[in-house]
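Our working data are protein records whose layout never changes between entries. Getting from the letters to the tokens is the skill we practise here. To make this concrete, we reproduce a full record directly below:
***
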Amino acid sequence: MTLIGSFIGGVLGGRWTAPSPAGAEKANSVNAEEFLLVDPSGKARAGLGLDQNGEVGLILTSRDGNRKLSLTPDERTVIKLTERSGRVLWGAP
């Protein structure tokens, strides 16, 4: 009963207290600060989003998690392939 009451309260409370939609929203669009692509086990394999400084980036992670490819126009090295330790294996420009 507590679970059901909490769920209903959360749904209704969210509708009444939710902030108004952003002015930039368009019909048939999705607005978010982050999108994640996860594998069947729930491990994030790709992400598109904003970091703590508001800089945008795209990150792709290898199946074993040892390599990461990142793309961000806000850093000096726009494209980087790094290993798990953070060592840059390849970068451009």
Remarks:
- Residues 30-93 form one domain.
- The two ends are 59 Å apart (CA to CA).
